Structure formats: C-alpha cells, structure tokens
Amino acid sequence: MKFSYKILLSCIITMAAALGIGGYFFVNDVFQASMEREMGQAADENSILQFAFETAALNIPAKYDLLQNSAVKEIGSSLEKSGQGTGRLLRLSDENREVLYASEGFVEDRELLAGIEKQTRVYRVIHPDEHYYIQTGAEIRALDRTLYLETMRDVTAVYQERSRGFAVYRNLTLLILLISSVLMFFIATWLTRPIRLLTQAARKMTDGDYSYRAEQVSRDEMGQLTQDFNHMAGVLEENIHELEAEVQAREDFIAAFSHELKTPLTAVIGYADVLRSRKLDDEKHFLSANYIYTEGKRLEAMSLRLLDIIVTKRGALTPEKVDVEMLFGYLRDMYGEKEEHPFTFRYEPGYICGELDLLKSVLLNLADNACKASEPGKPIEVFGENRPEGYYFTVKDYGVGISPEDCRRITEAFYMVDKSRSRSHNGAGLGLALCAEILKLHGSGLEITSTLGEGSSFGFEIPHEEKKDDGTEESQKCGSDRIDGVHSAGGSAGAGADRPL
To answer: Residue 178: what pLDDT?
Structure first.
C-alpha cells in the first residue's frame, strides 16, 4: 500500500473513531439530561397525585372509621379522568399490596410495588411493549390506611429523540468523513510528494544517472531530507567517478605494463632463438647475448621499481633527524664528476625529519630524470633552502620541458611523455611514481614548474623536525598537511619526457 494511502486510511479511521465516540457521548448526554428531566416530572406528578388522593380522601363523608376500598377505587378513577390526554397511568394497592385500582394498560408486574418502603419514593424505566415508561411508586396514608400509589409516564418520545439523534449524527459523520477523505487525499498526496521525488531520484540513480537530483519542494524535515539525499548523491557520484577513474587507471596500468613487458621479452625471445637455432660468429654471438642481457636488466629494473612502489604504498615511515649535508654529499658523489651533464649544487645547511634512504631515492630519481630530459652539455642545478615550514629541495634542468597536460599525469606508473626518448634510456615511467609515493609518506608532494623547450623544475618540502601533538610528545608521522601528488605551476610546463627510470 502506498504511503499516501496509509496516511489517508489512518486519518479516516482516526476521524471515524473520534466522531463516533464523540457523537455517542454527545447524544447520550442529551438523552440523559432529558431522562433526568422526565424522571423529575414523573416524581412531581406522583407527589401531586399523592396530595390529590389524600385531599380527596379527606373530603369523603365519614361513614366509616376506615377508608373503604370502594372509595379508593372511586378516587383512583377520578384521578385518572383528570389526567386524560397526558398519557399518565396509575395504580392503587392496599396494605397487603393487593391491587385495588389500575388504569387500563398498566403493567401487571409488581416488582416496583414490592420495593416501596415507608416515606420513600422509587422509580424505574420499563419497556413492556413498543413504548418506554417511567414507573414511580410511593406510600400514601389516608384515614388510618396505608396505600400505595404507582404511576407510569410515557417517555417513548425521549428514546425516539435519542434514536433520531444517533441517526442524524451518523449521517453527518458519514458526510464529514466523505468530505474529509477527499481533502485528506489531496493533503496526503501533497505531503508525500517529496517522497515520490526521492523515489524517482533513487530509481534514476539505480539506472546509472548519478547526476540526477531530487527536487526540493519544501523547507521542513522532508526538505532537509531531500537536501541530505542530494548531498549524499553528490558524494556518491564523486566516489563512483573516482572508482571508475581508478578502474580505468588500473586497466591503463595493466595495458602499459603488458606493453612494457612485450618489447623486451620479444627481443629476448628472438635473440635467444637465434642463439639456439644457428651458429653465429663471435661478434654476432656477443651482440645477441649483450642485447638479451640489456633487456633482461631493464626488466629487472622495472620489476624492482614496481616492488618499491608497492612497498612504499603499504609501508610506514620511520622518521629520523637528517642533516641535509648527507643528501647533497650523496648527490655530489653520484653526479659531481659527470661530464655529460654539469651539476651545480647550492644549498643552505639544515636538518629535516624523514627517512634518509627514501629521500636519497627521491633526489636520485629527480636528478636522473633531469639528465634524461636534457641534451648533453646542458647544466643541471640542485638547490636547497630553509623555509619557515621546512627545507625545500629543487632539481632544475634546461631540457625539453613538459606540457601542462602531461604534468597532471606524469606521476602515473608507466606514463611517458616521450616514449622513444624514455626507452632509449631504458626507462619505463616508474621513477616519478615512486617519488610521489615516498613524498606522500612524508606529508609532501612534488611541485612542478615547466616550460616547453626551456626546461623544468621539480621541488618538494620536508619538515625540519617532527611535529608535536602537545608540545612534549612526538607525533608518529612527520610533515605538514600538504596535498599529496603533483603540484603544477608556471608556464607551459616542461622537462623532459616522463622522466622514466
């Protein structure tokens, strides 16, 4: 059953119960008031008849010491004639409660007569036939005799009035319920409209239209529910897009990985088959074996890079206080005597908080990428400076540069801007992906400034020392809250291919 129908049915049942109970008590209260009035009139009438009987008994000539039964009957007949047209009936009984006189139609039941006591008046409502009566009874003392006077007053009209009241109220209740049902149907439809809109939005989203939003038609609780639903739908849409992007990235990763494996494996299998199937001279034999060795080393390097990325993503940082002199000394030992690309090192002394080996790997990858992006003889500069939040490293080259589009994807695994240049240096597009993961562990990220044809600058900032939670205890993770990943800045972006390693 629809919710609007439930509201409608609930309201109808509630109104019917309220009107029914209220009508019953109302009509019954009016009836009780009428009956009390009739009972009062019946009691007054009985008193008047009692007084009239006693007066009539005193006016009878005293022939006997006691009031004779014949006189009682005569007085009863006279009293009955005086009340003709009023619907009043009476009955007179002697001391032994034997009936002396009774109006035609008076009930033969003597239950009330047996209950009459001295100086008391009793009454009851009886229903001997189609009529209702109030029967009253009282004791009379006349000329040393004790008699009993009973009257019957017809109150059928009161009961008929109650029946008419119930009938009128019942018809009125049905009319009110009918009109109310029509009104409540429109009200319930209006009240449940936000629910129908939410249901429609949910079905649209189930069918794949995640951009659909429910219309907010009120500012009450249902309106707030609609607003919260739309906010939830927005978050859900973002999550779905992120999941789709992640799935696409995984597919691209698998495709790129398969492609990167295919080229060296094809060469390895081909040259191995040549060595296996024919006899070559020493020079060709050496060249074939050397090509197999070179491609094998490339596959080994690629597998190690992938392993490093996986371990870095799942690993936890063990921070330590590191002198930046150790990092620049390591780079100077690695590249200081490199004639193909003259290196320049300029840095300020200082200390940072991080893991030494991982930071060495970052700088080594950036320096190696700078070499691969630059033509022979082009200088490469490595800078270091103290900043308020930490120590800032910069590796700058004057190579081919990177476009803005490539800057956004350059840290993706296997992504290479210039694949021919990258493969010529045995690169697979994994170096910067590893750098991004290592910097993410340090609460940092790459900042890239590049211009096509002019070169690129890769920078990142590492905190001087560990953050403090309360000024006394050291936090388990170093680094400021930075946006992880790549931060692109400056002109048309630059430095060389994807810097594969």
So the answer is: 92
Does pTM top 0.85 for this prediction?
Answer: no
Structure tokens at 446: 């790459």
Residue among 466, 468, 449 nearest 457 (CA): 449
Residue 308: per-residue pLDDT: 62
402 near 277, Cβ under 8 Å?
no
Name every residue whose Cβ is closer than 8 Å to that of residue 60 and which is 6 or more positions away in sequence. Answer: 67, 71, 75
What does the pLDDT look like over 352-365, one tens digit per residue?
Answer: 988 887 888 888 88
Which pLDDT score is estimated for 215? 87
Q: Which of 452, 266, 274, 463 is nearest to 355 (CA)?
A: 463
Choose one of 263, 292, 315: the last residue of a domain. 315
Residue count of the chain, please give it.
501
- Give CA–CA dist 308/34, Å, rounded: 100
Low-confidence ranges of the chain (pLDDT < 50): 419-428, 467-501
For residues 296 and 240, membership in a common domain is answered with yes
Q: Tell me, what's the pLDDT at 302?
A: 62
- Cα separations (Å) of 385 from 81, 278, 352, 390, 464? 132, 60, 11, 9, 11
Whole-angstrom Cα distance, residue 492 to residue 498?
15
**Backbone dihedral region of 207: left (phi > 0), alpha (psi from -120 to 50 degrees) or beta?**
alpha
Query: Is 250 exposed, middle or buried (CB count within 10 Å of its CB: 0-12, 13-18, 19+)?
Result: exposed
CA distances from 303 to 299, 308, 310, 437, 479 (A): 6, 9, 11, 16, 29
C-alpha distance from residue 485 to each of 246, 317, 492 (Å): 15, 17, 19
**Whether residue 344 sits in one domain with residue 483:** yes
CA distance 494 to 413: 19
Cα 41 from Cα 242, distance rounded (Å): 90
Predicted local distance difference test score (pLDDT) of residue 415:
59
Under 8 Å between Cβ of 91 and 103: yes
Query: What pLDDT shows up at residue 161?
Result: 93
- Which CATH number covers residue 77? 3.30.450.20
DSSP, collapsed to helix, strand or coil, labels residue 74 as: helix
